[in-house]
TrEMBL record:
Residues 45-88 form the Rhodanese domain. One of its GO terms (cellular component) is mitochondrial matrix. InterPro entries: FAD-dep_OxRdtase (IPR006076), FAD/NAD-bd_sf (IPR036188), FAO_M (IPR032503), GCVT_N (IPR006222), Rhodanese-like_dom (IPR001763), TrmE/GcvT-like (IPR027266). This is Pyruvate dehydrogenase phosphatase regulatory subunit. Pfam families: DAO, FAO_M, GCV_T. Gene3D superfamilies: Aminomethyltransferase beta-barrel domains, D-Amino Acid Oxidase, subunit A, domain 2, FAD/NAD(P)-binding domain, Probable tRNA modification gtpase trme, domain 1. It comes from the Eukaryota.
């Protein structure tokens, strides 16, 4: 049977004139339909994109009382990636906020048909995630513990239990599995149409065949949009354009970087089996085989995430609505082989279609939401990494809360657009990164693994010296940072490949470095940390920072205050240290990945005063952290000035000359010394 099926596949690949029946393609016209209703001249909110994300945002905004909303779709509702989505609603997620979004989505879709009268195809099937190795089983147990904490039914089951739940599954190579009985299947396009129906009933205006060409910005805030049917003035703009979100972000007067890139995503559809599969048969996720399998009209829908993905549309937008892209049976064959190994008893499998549709992926495998750091009122919800239907309801809810209340009800920092900088928005970087990201969708998520693409984008002046000393590197916000130093004689290859949930090979190396920090002295390169200088001609800097930060910053010159940057609700936006360099000048140090977030948050809250300035000086300073009980001894040897606790107490800073540091990368030896 396996050879017969592969022969069938090769015949189809060798005959380009053959075209499979279209199962999920609606008839389209090459010309736009007439527009019976004209666009409004103004609205409070304009949403671009009529897929699952755009309709979910419109639905939740209208539920929260905002009615003056216009949703624009360049083609027809749900005609993009949403139309080709596999329709699997899965709550098994590694990141807590993604788990919560998926759980909310599942509950929303369950009652959506009753609310709207639109058939969403919701079927509670449950899902089974398979484990072929002990490490994979540990990973599933970790997810299961998170699900149980959230109150989502879940259990680790044996291979025999897998066979009982899904008799067609080959269990000979399994060590266990995770069963989530509440997971479901839906018709993704119908869910989107149901959300649009409810939003329309609540007053949202929806216009198809309307393309957004330009977002107008004045004084750093959204003022309107230009479309092919005229202009709409608005206070808020929401970019839910899916794979086109990147190009749309760059169409405005003030570019908004949205780092995502499309890849081809394949799944197979078959005719019903001789004994059609039951509609409530659990969905199978086989991460070690890189495939997923679900029932589809009595047959099989099976796709996956191959090791050699095919990015597309690197040069930009090239089609109005997404059509089924060119079939590539040779490319799909490894996934097909994995399917047949997992379900070897499929005796009369007749292929209906190989679907090839674009999916958007982000640099860190997490979706993108939130307000632009450069344009007020410009919100983004895109880059779902092939999980749009699972996240759609929850993501729309959190973004709507963000817009209406100023903050979502959950901590969404792992998904915030401001976690990315400009460097992560290069099309070359994104093309290479998504080729790494897509295979990682199925790889083990062991602690402290690092991306291999897009490296050395930002390095310290000491990078070459540290690298020569055996430094092993990690990446943070595009910045290379040392993880540990490999002692002479250690096998570097083994250390780099040490990916496990158990004690890693580098554990003792890090332990010895920690011991040195506690008992002797060490120097740590912390140049990647965010550094701002805030100054004024009068007391504006002090007065503003006193309002924005929790601790008292009216301290004598030379003192350092560790404090929190608080929002209007008293919650933490950032943890930082602020040194008072002079009466009217302050030096702020924050974590590396807070650079864009901190800058945007402060810039939006600093008064519009030409006498108050803020400068990002991260690149101006090499930051070395001298730590340990002998740190003062080392510092004293480098300076002519006394560095004893009496002369240089804790939480104190001063500009000092360190003659022994002269010549370091051309430096003069002058520096700001901060005692923490």
């Amino acid at each position: 049977m396996f050879l017969r099926l592969l022969s069938d596949v090769r015949w189809r690949a060798a005959n380009p004139k053959w075209r499979s029946p279209t199962c999920c393609r609606r008839s389209t016209s090459s010309t736009a339909e007439p527009h019976p209703v004209s666009l409004p001249a103004r609205a409070q909110v304009v949403i671009c994109g009529g897929g699952i994300m755009g309709t979910s945002v419109a639905y939740h905004l209208s539920k929260m009382g905002w009615k003056d909303i216009v949703l624009l779709e360049q083609g027809r509702l749900a005609a993009g990636t949403t139309r080709f989505c596999a329709g699997i609603v899965s709550t098994a997620r590694h990141v807590s906020i993604e788990l919560k979004m998926a759980d909310y989505s599942n509950k929303l879709y369950q009652q959506l048909e009753q609310e709207t009268g639109v058939n969403t195809g919701y079927t509670k099937t449950g899902s089974i995630s398979l484990a072929q190795t002990q490490d994979r089983l540990i990973s599933l147990k970790r997810i299961a513990s998170s699900l149980n904490v959230m109150g989502i039914p879940c259990e680790i089951i044996t291979p025999k239990q897998v066979a009982q739940l899904h008799p067609l599954i080959n269990i000979h190579d399994l060590v266990g599995a995770m069963y989530v009985p509440e997971d479901a299947l839906v018709s993704s396009a119908n869910v989107s149409l149901a959300l649009a129906t409810a939003a329309s009933r609540n007053g949202v205006q929806i216009h198809e065949r309307t393309s957004v060409s330009h977002v107008s910005v004045q004084k750093g805030r959204v003022t309107g949009v230009e479309t092919d049917r005229g202009q709409i003035q608005c206070q808020y703009f929401v970019n839910c354009a899916g794979q086109w979100a990147y190009e749309l972000g760059h169409s405005g007067e003030e570019p908004v970087n949205i780092p995502l890139h499309a890849c081809e995503h394949f799944y197979l559809l078959t005719h019903p089996l001789k004994e059609p599969l039951a509609s409530n048969l659990p969905t199978i996720v086989d991460p070690d085989g890189r495939i997923y399998i679900r029932n589809w009209q009595g047959g099989i829908l099976s796709g996956g995430f191959e090791k050699n993905p095919k990015p597309l549309f690197t040069e930009g937008r090239n089609q109005l609505e997404i059509q089924n892209l060119q079939e590539d049976w040779d490319h799909f064959e490894p996934l097909l082989s994995a399917l047949l190994r997992r379900m070897p008893d499929l005796e009369a499998l007749q292929i209906m279609q190989l679907v090839n549709c674009p999916e958007s992926f982000t640099p860190d495998m997490r979706c993108i939401m939130g307000e632009s750091p450069t344009v007020r009122g410009y919100f983004v919800l895109a880059g779902m990494n092939s999980a749009g239907i699972s996240y759609g309801g929850g993501a729309g809810k959190y973004l709507a809360e963000w817009m209406v209340n100023g903050y979502p009800s959950e901590n969404v920092w792992p998904l915030d657009l401001k976690r990315f900088g400009t460097l992560q928005s290069s099309r070359t970087f994104l093309r290479h990164r998504v080729m790494e990201v897509m295979p990682l969708m199925c790889d083990l998520k062991v602690p402290r693994w690092d991306f291999q693409t897009g490296r050395q984008l930002r390095t310290s002046p000491l990078y070459d010296r540290l690298d020569a000393q055996g430094a092993r590197w990690m990446e943070k916000h595009g910045f290379e940072r040392v993880k540990y130093f490999v002692p002479p004689g250690k096998d570097l290859l083994d250390l780099d490949q040490s990916k496990t949930f158990y004690k890693p090979d580098w554990f003792d190396i890090v332990g010895s470095e920690v011991k040195c920090c506690k008992e002797a002295v060490c120097v740590i390169d912390m140049s990647s940390f965010t550094k701002f200088e805030i100054s004024s001609t009068g007391d504006q800097a002090l007065e503003t920072l006193q309002y924005l930060f929790s601790n008292d910053l009216d301290v004598p010159v030379g003192h350092v205050v560790h404090t929190g940057m608080l929002n209007e609700k008293g919650g933490y936006e950032n943890d930082c240290s602020i040194a008072r360099l002079s009466k009217r000048s302050f030096f702020m140090i924050s974590p590396t990945d807070q650079q864009v977030h901190c800058w945007a948050w402060l810039k939006n809250r600093l008064p519009d005063d030409s006498n108050l300035t803020m400068e990002d000086v991260t690149w101006k300073y090499t930051a070395l952290n001298l730590i340990g009980p002998r740190a003062v001894d080392v510092l004293s040897e480098l300076s002519y000035a006394p560095m004893t606790p009496e002369h240089f107490p804790s939480l104190f800073c001063k500009v000092s000359d360190l003659p022994r540091l002269k010549g370091l990368n051309g430096g003069s030896g002058g520096c700001v010394v901060v005692g923490l």
